[in-house]
């Protein structure tokens, strides 16, 4: 099948989101659809999926013009949209999920379980997946959930599959599995539109690429003909730096020391010891399930350790809740901004004043003026792009939301800032802004700890990095000798040769 | 969004809105506007229903005002409870025990004040105004303690609010009934002044209490750290905790505050009627209070809510009851109207389904 989108135009109010975009996908092709957040990718794909309507333009399937008014029409035409948040029901077995909404019934009107199981098995066999259809979806890991959803798309005879950032929550091994699946689909002449921010994955798996920027198609071609930095440049419109941001370090006193921190109750981490000094940027990395987030949630008082000692500026402290951590000068930017970071019912300024509110207030009354003044300061230095401070936080892009969450910590003058996955779901431009902010904070003599699963990010901003594996610190890399290979070796449980 | 303006068609066209478009937009975006509008509409209907068949404008106005004073006075106790309920619901909780708390605190007040042989304060030789003051303080303290018990089990015991307060509802009333089974207390007439003291020949004390508490809580919700933290906890508890909000304390405080407000409502109720029927008083009160909060635009899921909205919601339900009276709707059908208005209010305020 061949899908063509021609001169698609779409605006929301006075905001032109797509300005005449054309895109072609063939069966048997994996097309990378790239672009920063807000470039128009999801709008384009939602038009294709029948979720929203285009203002003008046309869509052809094998040369025939089509128009999708509802998601159902798009699905019937053979287009499957696999969203980031998967549409599976955890409490049902795989085979029931496969037939959700179109369950076959036997002649007594009861669910035809045998047929559902049999057909699911056949589909799995056809694309080479080894899964028992009777497994509960809850028991599957994230990659198999993807695979179940893709198989479901196949069973509805989808010939074009849109995958929206399918690998964000997957481990390397799981990513490998999904990629194998994608290759099998390609061999079955299915066309795949792969939306991702991870350019190394694009290089690995995709045949062609198309880059959107500000609602225009700015580049397309064969992935083999370009490098990762070419793609990054197409996305942001200027050269993106990838080299380490070397800087003149001025390390001060030790700010945090952790000795033998262990959580044997839930077995998330064991015997974690390290220290970080003022003005230092310490990276902590590893694969999914390495326990790094849990370690720092514990230090911040959100979890409890079973043993181990924590020292702040040389004296031992017991931190059993987040307020105590804040009083000791620790700031914490959580991972998963949507779930843990923003309060979506609140405005920008209300989110930004969450931490400082008790400190700025007298007798429990909010000092709004001081909050506004304070936020205006940070707004310029953090380059937050926004309209009115009383707009809801959800009106901002991911990068700007993250900067607001960061801003709320800066006015309590933390000695130590823990940033867990600070660039998650943030576009390339805002990513660089956040790196600059991290360096600036370190220059202001704050100890910064950056938790990240991206080795490149660690190498780029950190002075030194701990690599964790299954809840333990597997090793440490430092300075200009840091490289992806060493980090990956440690993260997978290996040992560095020269240690 | 990018800073660059699109090259083509970048003229910002300010579309001229006609009144209807403005109205629809305002209705959808501002819950206070929509319920305020409905309220005004209902007041107009009510005014028409009361009729204009009076000898003079003054006679008409007196009749109209008296009708309103009656409405407000009758609804003041539940109105006060609904205000406290708003905070509880904003944190994502619920309190089903308000009716039972009301009965427990009311019975306590009567036992303290009883003019008979069993009167607790009388037995201690405290009578007159001091007895009334002591009673008010002790009853409010009991309300605080009962609310705290619920707050503790929700915040520290991690019991779902629905279950914790369902249990409390049964416990509070049952224990009260047990202690009151052979009692027949009567309260001193001075105590009745709390509700029936007249200002310029108008019995509006309950309305004043309600208004003052509404104003205070409105201020609390808009201007205080506590008010902000209630929204934060209800909207995203984890994010609130990770920002240093004492989530347990906020949850505890909203239930304790509601307990205090129920005690206040209970004092008003006892002083208005002179007694309290421990078997039946306050039954269904939790639903009336929740209905007012929900009609007022506060989401049962927690997060954004509005004290002013709850006042509107209470008034809508009150005016509706008044209309049912004026139109002589059969007694058994009246609850159905209340049910209808709750559903209709939430239907009108529903958010567009987000894709």
Short characterization:
Chain A has 499 residues and is of the alpha/beta class. Chain A has helices at residues 41-48, 71-76, 94-98, 113-126, 142-155, 172-187, 199-205, 228-236, 292-299, 322-327, 337-341, 348-352, 357-360, 368-381, 398-410, 428-443, 455-461, 484-491, and strands at 2-12, 15-26, 30-34, 56-61, 64-66, 79-82, 160-164, 191-195, 208-213, 216-222, 254-263, 269-277, 281-286, 307-312, 315-317, 330-333, 416-420, 447-451, 464-469, 472-478. Chain A has two domains: 2-236, 3-Layer(aba) Sandwich (Rossmann fold); 254-491, 3-Layer(aba) Sandwich (Rossmann fold), CATH 3.40.50.
Element layout with pairings:
The complex is a heterodimer of chains A (499) and B (355).
Chain A (H helix, E strand, L loop, with lengths): L1 E11 L2 E12 L3 E5 L6 H8 L7 E6 L2 E3 L4 H6 L2 E4 L11 H5 L14 H14 L15 H14 L4 E5 L7 H16 L3 E5 L3 H7 L2 E6 L2 E7 L5 H9 L17 E10 L5 E9 L3 E6 L5 H8 L7 E6 L2 E3 L4 H6 L2 E4 L3 H5 L6 H5 L4 H4 L7 H14 L16 H13 L5 E5 L7 H16 L3 E5 L3 H7 L2 E6 L2 E7 L5 H8 L8
Parallel strand pairs in A: 3-8, 3-9, 6-7, 7-8, 13-18, 13-19, 16-17, 17-18
Antiparallel strand pairs in A: 1-2, 1-4, 4-5, 9-10, 11-12, 11-14, 14-15, 19-20
Chain B lengths: L18 H11 L1 H20 L6 H34 L7 H16 L6 H4 L4 H28 L5 H19 L9 H8 L8 H19 L1 H11 L1 H6 L4 H27 L11 H11 L11 H20 L4 H19 L6
Helix pairs in contact in B: 1-2, 2-14, 3-9, 3-10, 3-12, 3-13, 3-14, 4-6, 4-7, 4-12, 6-12, 8-12, 9-10, 10-12, 13-14, 13-15, 14-15
Low-confidence runs of at least 5 consecutive residues of chain A: none
The percentage of residues in β strands of chain B lies in: under 5%
Element order of chain B: H for helix, E for strand: HHHHHHHHHHHHHHH
Largest sheet of chain B: none
Number of helices of chain A: 18
Please report the total strand number of chain B as a whole number: 0
Biggest sheet strand line-up of chain A: 6-7-8-3-9-10
What structural class should be given to the helix and strand makeup of chain A? alpha/beta
Number of domains of chain A: 2
The CATH superfamily name of the largest domain in chain A is P-loop containing nucleotide triphosphate hydrolases
Q: State the oligomer.
A: heterodimer
Using only C-alpha atoms, the radius of gyration of chain A works out to 25 Å
- Shape call of chain B: globular
If classified by CATH, what would the architecture of the largest domain in chain A be?
A: 3-Layer(aba) Sandwich
For this structure, the CATH topology of the largest domain in chain A is Rossmann fold
Which residues of chain B sit in consecutive blocks of at least 5 with pLDDT less than 50?
1-13
The largest sheet of chain A, given as strand count, sense and whether it forms a barrel, is:
6 strands, mixed
């Amino acid at each position: 099948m061949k899908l063509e989108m021609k001169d698609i135009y779409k605006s929301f109010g006075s905001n032109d989101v797509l300005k005449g975009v054309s895109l072609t996908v063939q069966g048997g092709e994996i097309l990378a659809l790239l672009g920063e957040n807000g470039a128009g990718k999801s709008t384009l794909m939602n038009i294709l999926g029948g979720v929203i309507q285009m203002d003008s333009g046309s869509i052809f399937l094998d040369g025939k013009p089509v128009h999708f008014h509802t998601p159902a029409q798009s699905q019937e035409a053979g287009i499957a949209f696999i969203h980031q948040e998967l549409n599976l029901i955890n409490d049902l077995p795989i085979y029931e999920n496969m037939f959700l909404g179109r369950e076959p019934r036997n002649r007594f009107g009861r669910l035809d379980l045998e047929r559902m199981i049999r057909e699911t098995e056949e589909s799995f066999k056809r694309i080479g997946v080894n899964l028992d259809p009777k497994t509960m979806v809850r028991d599957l890991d994230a990659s198999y959930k993807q695979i179940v959803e893709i198989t479901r798309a196949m069973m509805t005879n989808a010939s074009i599959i849109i995958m929206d950032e399918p690998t964000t929550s997957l481990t390397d091994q799981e990513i490998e599995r999904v990629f194998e699946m994608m290759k099998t689909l390609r061999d079955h002449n299915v066309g795949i539109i792969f939306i991702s921010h991870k350019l190394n994955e694009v290089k690995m798996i995709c045949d062609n690429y198309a880059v959107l920027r500000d609602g225009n198609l700015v580049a397309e071609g064969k992935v083999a003909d370009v490098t990762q930095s070419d793609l990054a440049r197409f996305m942001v419109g200027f050269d993106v730096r990838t080299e380490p941001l070397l800087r003149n370090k001025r390390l001060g006193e030790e700010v945090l020391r952790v000795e033998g921190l262990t959580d044997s109750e839930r077995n998330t981490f064991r015997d974690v010891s390290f220290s970080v000094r003022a003005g230092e940027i310490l990276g902590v990395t590893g694969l999914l399930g390495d326990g790094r987030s849990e370690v720092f949630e514990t230090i911040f008082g959100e979890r409890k350790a079973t043993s181990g000692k924590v020292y702040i500026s040389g004296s031992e402290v017991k931190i059993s809740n987040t307020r105590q951590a804040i009083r000791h000068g620790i700031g914490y930017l959580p991972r998963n901004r949507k779930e843990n970071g923003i309060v979506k019912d609140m405005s920008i300024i209300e989110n930004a004043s969450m931490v400082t509110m008790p400190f700025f207030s007298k007798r429990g009354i909010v000092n709004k003026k001081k909050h506004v003044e304070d936020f205006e300061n940070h707004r310029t230095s953090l380059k937050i792009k926004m309209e009115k401070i009383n707009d809801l936080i959800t009106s901002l892009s991911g990068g700007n939301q993250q900067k607001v969450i960061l801003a709320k910590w800066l006015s309590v003058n933390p000695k130590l800032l823990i940033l867990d996955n600070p660039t998650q779901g943030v576009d390339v431009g805002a990513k660089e802004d956040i790196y600059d902010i991290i360096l600036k904070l370190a220059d202001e003599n704050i100890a910064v700890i950056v938790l990240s699963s991206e080795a490149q990010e660690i190498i780029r901003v950190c002075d030194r990095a701990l690599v964790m594996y299954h809840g333990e610190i597997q090793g440490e890399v430092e300075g200009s000798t840091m490289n992806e290979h060493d980090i990956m070796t440690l993260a997978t449980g290996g040992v560095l040769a020269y240690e | 969004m990018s800073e660059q303006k699109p090259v083509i068609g970048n003229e910002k066209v300010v579309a001229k809105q006609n009144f209807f478009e403005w109205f629809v937009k305002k209705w959808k975006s501002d819950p206070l506007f929509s319920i305020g509008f409905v309220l005004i509409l209902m007041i107009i209907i009510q005014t028409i229903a009361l009729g204009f068949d009076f000898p003079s404008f003054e006679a008409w106005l007196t009749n109209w005002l008296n009708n309103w004073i009656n409405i407000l006075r009758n609804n003041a106790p539940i109105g006060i409870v609904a205000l406290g309920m708003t905070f509880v619901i904003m944190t994502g909780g619920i309190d089903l025990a308000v009716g039972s708390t009301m009965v427990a605190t009311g019975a306590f007040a009567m036992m303290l004040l009883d003019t008979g042989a069993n009167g607790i304060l009388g037995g201690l030789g405290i009578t007159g105004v001091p007895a009334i003051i002591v009673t008010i303080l002790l009853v409010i303290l009991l309300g605080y303690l009962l609310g705290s018990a619920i707050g503790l089990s929700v915040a520290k015991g991690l019991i779902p609010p629905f279950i914790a307060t369902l249990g409390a509802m049964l416990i509070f009333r049952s224990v009260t009934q047990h202690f009151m089974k052979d009692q027949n207390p009567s309260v001193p007439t001075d105590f009745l002044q709390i509700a029936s003291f007249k200002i310029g020949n108008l019995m509006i004390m309950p309305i004043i209490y309600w208004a003052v508490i509404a104003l205070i809580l409105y201020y609390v919700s808009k201007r205080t750290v506590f008010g902000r933290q209630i929204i934060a906890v209800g909207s995203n508890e984890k994010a609130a905790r990770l920002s240093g909000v004492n989530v347990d304390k906020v949850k505890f405080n909203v239930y304790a505050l509601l307990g205090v407000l129920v005690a206040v409502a209970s004092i008003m109720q006892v002083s208005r009627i002179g007694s309290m029927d421990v078997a039946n008083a306050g039954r269904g009160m939790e639903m009336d209070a929740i209905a007012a909060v929900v009609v007022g635009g506060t989401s049962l899921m927690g997060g954004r809510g509005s004290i002013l909205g709850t006042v509107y919601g209470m008034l809508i339900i009150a005016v509706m009851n008044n209309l049912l009276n004026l139109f002589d709707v059969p007694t058994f059908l009246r609850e159905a109207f209340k049910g209808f208005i709750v559903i209709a209010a939430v239907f009108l305020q529903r958010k567009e389904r987000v894709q």
